[in-house]
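Thread: sanity check for a docking pose with zinc ion

Original post by kr_44:
Hi all, I'm comparing my docking run against an independent structure prediction. Below are the sequence and the ligand SMILES. Could someone generate the full complex and paste the structure tokens? I mainly care about where the ligand ends up relative to the chain.
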Amino acid sequence: MIRHRQSRTRGWLGLLCFLLLAAPLLAKQRPAAHSGRSSPAPSHPARAQGHDNILLITIDTLRADHLGCYGYKAVRTPTIDTLAREGVLFPMAISQVPLTLPSHAAILTGTYPFHNGLQDFTAPPLSDNFRTVAQAFHDHGYATGAVVSSFVLDRSWGLARGFDYYDDHFAGSSYLKNNLALVERRADGSVNASTAWLAQHHARPFFFWLHLYDPHSPYHPPEPFLTQYRGHEYDGEIAYVDSQLARLIGWLKREGLYQGTTIVLLSDHGESLGEHGEKEHGFFIYNSTVHVPLIIKPATDSRRKWHSTEAPVETVAVAPALLQTAGISDPIQKQFDSPGLLAEAGGGAPAAYSETFYPFSSFGWSPLHGLETEKYHYIDAPKAELYSPPGDPGESHNELAGQGAVAGVLKAELQKRIQEHAPAAAPQPGGSLDEAAVAKLRALGYMAYRAPVSQETLSHPLSDPKDKLNEFNSILHATDAIDAGHFQEADALLTQLRRDDPGMYILPFMQGEMAVRQRQDAAAAQYFQDCLKLAPNFDQAMTGLAGALQAQGKSEEAIQWLQRALQRNPQNFRAWYEMGWIQERFQQPAEAQASLQKALAIQPTFAPAYRDMGMLQFQQQNYAEAAGSLQKAADLGLVEPTLFNFLGICYSRTNRLPAALRSYKKALALKPDYGEAHLNLGLVYERMNQATAARREYAAACRAQKDLCALAKRRE
Ligand SMILES: [Zn+2]
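Reply from moderator J.T.:
Ran it for you. Here is the predicted complex with zinc ion included:
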């Protein structure tokens, strides 16, 4: 029998993924929930006839000051500039958190990160207590659709709630990559998916969200933008996105939909591009990463007056503004933290809030909170900062010393803002924290409580991220070295970092991941154990340890660690997947199948689990079921010659010969010297009475694989 799993990739807990996303992409996955519990939804959607369409466009990682309409000269963005001309441009829109998932959660729910609990990637998925604007539109009769372009907005986080259609289908093989943060779909594919859905669903008013990811690092625009923007490829990605938006807008115009559609375009956060020593985003909350574009092109006959203001506006104001422009009244309005952007709403808060907990939850350093007014930007940190962006747009002169009174007022306002909008009853932290540690988390405004920051860390004053910039950049450097396969260099960096700061759990975790990639299983196990000593509740380290133990043949220990990981985080679908694999090796097909089913219930787009499920069904000779599972894996984008060969066998054994033919041909397109696929294809041709084609395949089988010659000759 042909072996499968040879392409199984270990070390899937991507390192960069961990760093960029501050972990648990993989950890807390949850099936798409399609209805919130916060309010009863009408059982029959109300009619929405005569209402405008709403198109929400979020462009990831887009600095406001890198668009033509915001005064930048080095990029061509004619489409976005035209939207700004035909609509309203908000010069000072501020993102509430410079991280993709939490920022989008704030945009779609109209709530602050510390209110909804999605503050970083160590948080659980969006609580059912929060409605999304999509639910409101859905319940008022709108067709609701979304196309997202990055794995980090995958449906398991709860943002798919309320969307009739949520396209987060990325190549299934992406799950086999180390770095999930790099799993993305280019703008052309996402625009195609959007127009395909819109073409089917514009008979009634629609609410559609398009998320584009291209400006996110790495900056590598397609031609001709790569050549045109050599040396500033980030701008090239922006120009490319603009060119794709031109296709979308052109389509809307051709379909006669443009005029009746309110288009809201914004970004989730900016990009530091080296300012303040930060390369990308998430670590600090300077304007380089929190100042974002916000443009609203109203439907032509919109009676609503948009309130354009020089004062800072928040991205949490977008959701209330969307409902106002649609004239919808919905229970979600009770949850909003902002009155919106329309003139009659009063233009929202005069100061904009932002935060980042990334330095805290990943490294145990202080979180940052900020408040920005028309004149000042105050950043609360162990060493607070105060800037005057109008005269100092690069925020390079800290005026705190001379402006203590201003800073004091803003600090008080910041604390009031947090108190006013924090949830009445915060969730109880799990794990091993004592009361003092929990009190400290609450005082910090941290609602997630899942960060693997240890009690020991919480018992000391937290370091200012500014003072940790060298360490942070060394960690990023080590990550790049690991990605490039320069393991010695990475190990030297990590060893030095551990000597300087032995309390950072992420360092042994990274070393464990690196050891996994080098197949040093005993060393990997030791590193993961070191990590768990510092962060006893870190389920990803448990899953990593289980993999390392399993590789050494210590299956029983591995299962125990998987069980502990699942106890800590029942949504860890990778743990269920690993469990299934071990059970299969122990000849427990029923248990293995149950584990894979659990993995798929949590993460329904996890192609490798469909593949393995299909192979289990194949081994039990359930060819029809196996065909369904393997086909699903293929439909999700898994591209493996063995997968298509087995799929062909399943189709052949269930007498679906044309389908079998197609599958074998796909296997051979991927691996032209695949002897078994040639042989199998020959058999199908023979059954279809195509003797010449059959003989050709038998000969090819023999050429490709000597041990198939006897078999092939017998058929010829
Ligand atoms: Zn982002």
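DSSP finds 29 helices and 14 strands in the chain. Hope that helps with the comparison, let us know if your pose agrees.
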